[in-house]
Amino acid sequence: MKSFASDNYSGVHPEVFEALQRANAQHEISYGADTFTEKANQLFEEQVGRVTVLYTFNGTGANVTCLKCCALPFQAVVCSEYAHILADECGAPTQQIGCSLLPIKTPDGKLTPEMIKPLLNRIGNVHNTQPKVIYISQTTELGTVYSLAELKALCDFAHANNMYVHLDGARISNAVAALGVSLKAATVDCGVDIMSFGGTKNGIMFGEAVLIFNEDLKASAPYFHKQTTQLFSKNRFIAAQFTALLSNNLGYRLAAHANKMAALLASKVSVLSGVQITQRVDANALFVIIPEKTIQPLRDLYPFYEWDAETHEQRWMCSFDTTEEDIEQFVNALKSLL
Questions:
Q1: pTM
Q2: Can the peptide bond before residue 187 be classed as cis, meaning omega within 30 degrees of 0?
Q3: Which helix (H) or strand (E) holds 168?
Q4: Phi and psi for 74 in degrees, rounded to 5?
């Protein structure tokens, strides 16, 4: 059964499976000194320029590794109230690093310099945790995408106030595809200091990559990586998947398809009476309000998650393997329930 619950539900792209099989065909040096990791690192450098790359098992590990590089225990991470590190990581950043999280209410998941400015009053006050990192998701947890201008403004603001920007790129390929620009233009050129590059939601089996651009953050990063229990002995099996994702524009093509399917779904449900789309459909996510009576029967046919129980707002996600037929069947089921 196809679902609209999460792009994490989708399987593994055949080209990624082939890359895993190639990595399994021979013995290789452990802990990232292998030829597959070397190739993946090379492909990342071709896309973004000079970068230190570390590989992790999952997104939480990637975020904790990134934030360890940026923050001390008495410092704080500014984030949206919807941020993955706040809402979905079981307190891992606080437990692993000791730093605090300073959440900000956002109508569309995006932070702005104006929202963050009031927190600067904490700087220098020994009684307050000190804002040091601005954490953003691209795409955001509400499916919206920062424009290049919005992202650059945040980075400029951060650097002017001695802060770093960590970009959670669990769905960065969807954002890059939506913006129609290169990965470098959407990250390094805007001033991002450190980021995670997601693959699990875009056709790989497991693993994420940490990309470090700021030279000041690179020296200690390998030790934080190890200390966070994210250094994989057989690292080639993570890296090999990224060689597939970064070759022949595969990751971009998969993300662009998921975005296209979400746009198609939005166009079909937006004309239905009783359906309200609550956020911009920038990438591969739809946030919608539908009549309460339709929610569970539709979910029984096609799994999806409820975002806000009070308003009956639901989240529908499209994946790299969502088809037009899947969309048509889902919309027909919704029509019959309405």
A1: 0.96
A2: no
A3: strand 164-169
A4: -90, 5
State whether 266 and 160 are in the same domain: no
In a domain, 190, yes or no: yes
Kindly state the percentage of the chain with pLDDT values over 90. Answer: 99
Name the helix (H) or strand (E) containing 66.
helix 59-70
Question: What is the mean pLDDT of the segment spanning 85-107?
Answer: 95
Residues facing residue 316 across a β-bridge = 286
> What tens digit of pLDDT does each residue of 31-77 get?
999 999 999 999 999 999 999 999 999 999 999 999 999 999 999 99
pLDDT at 2: 85
Per-residue pLDDT at 1 exceeds 80: no
Calculate the CA dihedral of residues 325, 327, 329, 335 and round it to 10 degrees. -150
Tokens of residue 46, six digits: 């071709």
DSSP conformation letters of 213-259: --GGGTSSHHHHHHHTT---TTTHHHHHHHHHHHSTTHHHHHHHHHH
Selection from 84, 251, 56 nearest residue 173 by Cα: 251
Q: How many residues does the chain have?
A: 338
Judge if 282 and 242 occupy the same domain.
no
pLDDT recorded at residue 151: 98
Distances (CA, A) of 46 to 15, 182, 184, 192, 226: 20, 11, 10, 17, 26
Mean pLDDT, to the nearest integer, of 303-309? Answer: 95
HEC string of 126-158? CCCCEEEEEEEECCCCCCCCCCHHHHHHHHHHH
Q: Extract the tokens encoding 294.
A: 């339709």
Instruction: Indicate the burial class of 171 (C-beta count within 10 angstroms; 0-12, 13-18, 19 or more).
Output: buried
The contacts of residue 8 (CB under 8 Å, 6+ apart) are 200, 201
Q: What are phi and psi of 294, to 5 degrees?
A: -90, -15
The residue among 231, 246, 261 that closes a domain is: 246
Residue 242: is its pLDDT beyond 80? Answer: yes
> Which residue, 204, 226, 246, sits at the end of a domain?
246
Give the CA distances from residue 121 to residues 77, 103, 125, 128, 130, in Å, rounded to whole numbers and listed in that order: 15, 15, 8, 9, 9
145 and 260 assigned to the same domain = no
